[in-house]
Amino acid sequence: MSRSPVALSAPGKVLLAGGYLVLDREHTGLVFGLDARIHVHVQKLPTSPGVVLSEIIVRSPQFKGAEWKYGYREAEDKGGIEVTQLKGSTRCTSQTRFVNFNVPLTDAHKTGLGSSAALVTAFTAAVLTHYLDKEQLALHSESGRARLHNLAQAAHCTAQGKVGSGFDVAAAVYGSCIYRRFSPSVLEGQGEVGSRGFTERLKALVEDSDSTNKWDMQIDKSAAVMPRGLSLLMCDVDCGSESVGMAKKVLSWRKENPEEATLLWATLQKGNEDLARELQRLSQGCNAVPQNYENLSDIILTIRSLIREMSAKAKVPIEPKVQTDLLDACCQINGVIGGVVPGAGGFDAIALLIQDEALPSLEEFLRSYTTAKGDESGPGIGKVRLLGVKQEMEGLRAEESNIYTDWVT
């Protein structure tokens, strides 16, 4: 059967509230998708008549030398494929959506926007959509999305070498949501790829058919909203952090100080829930009446204060001083409601909630913003720039293949 090219994209993410807490099933995280999306285009490998190649070629043409080739075996002879991976923004025109970064992939700048989870999700969805009939995987259906989510979580955890919380994959599949993680035991004990019984275990995991090992994450899309007139923007500070090492130190402090940590975690959880509720309340307001964002600003300041307390007690730079200075300075601009160092914190991009009309003032301020050199908490952050991204409510989606004409072979 002749198969047409397939293209799908998945959003990046920002964990606006719930950093570290989202690792624990007792707590939740408020995660927003971002319109910086990872696109994956799949087409059949061109061959001579009667020739079938069992090969998958993966290309990332925005980077130098980014091509990988894999051989495989399958029961049915459906031929090889060529996969093209691209990073692009929804808000750009078709001519500027994808840019040539002109650097090796190893030199790509880290911003903490969840591109690895978006890539795994879009790649998995595109390859499955190419090889499977619609009856076998209907991504527009609830059951189809769930099976994709399950497989993408397993693949992403395998690639990372650990079982994470999974909020980034959940955002890539479902979009913005309040997320409660799955029990780590769901993915533990699957065994090595190719080990005896692995295929059967993976199939049961994806289809959630094992009554003794059920997926138990909770994804609430209705509770993650952005009021009209507000935008969630990201500022790149040009020196990313190693979130894995930071998380280990925070969790180690929590284990050594259970009573103190439990109280702090519970207080932070309340602050995060207050933030989600206030965003919902503002979303239900009358558009003709000017909104008062003072309560929203106060909630964000409270969350930041608690994060700095965690940072000091665990001796981990979750909100380093240079980031505190930057956030405080941005919040002095009329129309900037508040901001945080999202997720695991550190020196990744910061997140700002602003009124849409404040964007020109923020851009002008950042053009001239400078920071002192680093201190014992970490490096200085140098130039700061707004990334061309904002919140994205939609998760995985199909794309038209013709937007990739200049990038596929």
Polypeptide structure, described:
The mean pLDDT is 88. Strands 1, 2, 3, 4, 5, 6, 7, 8, 9, 10, 11 and 12 form a twelve-stranded mixed sheet that branches. The chain has nine helices and twelve strands. It is an alpha+beta fold and 409 residues long. The longest helix is centred in the middle third of the chain and has 26 residues, at 258-283. It is globular and about 70 Å long. Helix 1 (115-131) crosses helix 2 and helix 1 crosses helix 3 (167-174). The protein has helices spanning 115-131, 142-160, 167-174, 198-207, 243-256, 258-283, 294-314, 321-330, 359-367; strands spanning 6-17, 29-44, 55-59, 67-71, 81-89, 177-180, 218-220, 230-236, 336-340, 350-355, 385-392, 397-398.
Key descriptive features of the protein:
409 residues, alpha+beta, twelve-stranded mixed β-sheet, 9 helices, globular
Overall shape: it is globular
State the end-to-end CA separation.
22 Å
Spatial extent as radius of gyration: 22 Å
Counting helices, strands and paired strands, the structural category is: alpha+beta
| Whole-number mean pLDDT | 88
Q: Segments where pLDDT lies below 50 for 5+ residues?
A: none
Number of strands: 12
Share of helical residues: 25-40%
Total of helices: 9
SSE succession:
EEEEEHHHEHEEHHHHEEHEE
Largest sheet: 12 strands, mixed
